[in-house]
Amino acid sequence: MEQPLAYRMRPRNIEEVVGQQALVGPGKIISRMVQAKMLSSMILFGPPGTGKTSIASAIAGSTQYAFRKLNAATDTKKDLQMVAEEAKMSGTVILLLDEIHRLDKTKQDFLLPHLENGRIVLIGATTENPYLSINPAIRSRAQIFEVQPLTLDEMGVAVDRALNDSERGLGQYFVDLDADAKKQLLYATNGDLRAALNGLELAVKSTSKDVDGRIKITLPIIEESVQKRALVADKDGDAHYNVISALQKSIRGSDADAALHYAARLIAAGDLVILARRLRVIAYEDIGMAAPVVVNQAITAINTAEQLGFPEARIPLANAILLLALAPKSNSAMVAIDAAQADLQKRGGGPIPDYLKDAHYQGAADLGYGVDYLYPHAYPGDWVAQQYLPDSLQGHQYWEPKGNSKAELSYQQQYEKLRIAQKQGLQRKKK
Fold first, then answer.
1. Beta pairing, strands 93-98 & 66-71
2. How many whole angstroms separate alpha carbon 89 and alpha carbon 300?
3. pLDDT one-digit tens code per residue, 307-343
4. Cα dihedral angle (110, 113, 118, 121), rounded to 10 degrees?
5. Residue-range domains of the chain with CATH
6. Over the stretch 150-194, which tens digit does the pLDDT of each residue have?
């Protein structure tokens, strides 16, 4: 059975690598390693289809070293032993270890001495952030390089190369790829060259030749062959959390369009739970005291979305996102609680005044608990000056309003009015 087009078109040397010029371009780090034949183990991380395997294959082709590929999740320690034996005989083997973040301790312990003596040059590939997902013992023995999604121009170069290559590509099929079909192929696969090439191959091989013996690939054919692709990595992937981060930062920055874009990615992934959770966090972290009414409206919309489920959930979610993005912003409440927590770590709590302690049980009064407590509702305006903080923290202020909206200004005025009244009332009592 013939290998897929993406496999056949893998670069045979560094010069054939598409994209990643910051790593493999002239004078760049991996090119220098190859030219000097001073290879070191490395970890390549980035989205699927961006060239991690291609770079490893190209390094092997450029250096003429043996090249082997294993998967950390599915291949066994015995498979690693076979690679090690080959390395002893041939001198050096380049080992591409896919899903390296799933390497268990037994396999890791076997690999480490072979990495140390240089017989195996490990090229680990992963879609996960290696600083979060890969054991430090492996990480410390490898250089870490981030592989970037391919640009549309770079994807176009690779597609054209595949269409014109008669030996490994589709050159023998005499393909006419419409401009709008090519554009859709590049956009729909979102920087994943493997998906683009395999989608193109399906389109070509499933389309009949015309009377002139040519295969004409139109937009509908590409749409059928590629199908709709979600523009976000799987729910456990590092890219997924990057989208979530971008969503929150877009709302915080009041860019409604960007926020809707990143929300659309999460909706495409079907992740209602984490989207709803993050929007709740955003409502209280980034808007908070600046627009409490908006926060309540957004929370209502989020709750409605969860009750509806997809696809209808997208509608209340859009309402919530627009409300939050366009609302005035203030993180004063979050800063206040963080300040209180930091103060607690630094100073400790201090004894709670006895009159604030729980006094609902028999014998509490004998301990002095609840005695002399002033019940605010028994006083005019339902307020009375009374010390609530421990003695060691008396007068300490955590909330620092920003006054970014009329709502927060009104709360600020009330906050300052009560602080002044509290201070004056307690001073009068001392006299």
1. parallel
2. 67
3. 998 889 999 999 999 999 999 999 999 999 999 999 8
4. 30
5. 5-146 (3.40.50.300), 152-226 (1.10.8.60), 238-326 (1.20.272.10), 351-430 (1.10.3710.10)
6. 888 999 999 999 999 999 999 999 999 999 999 889 888 877 888
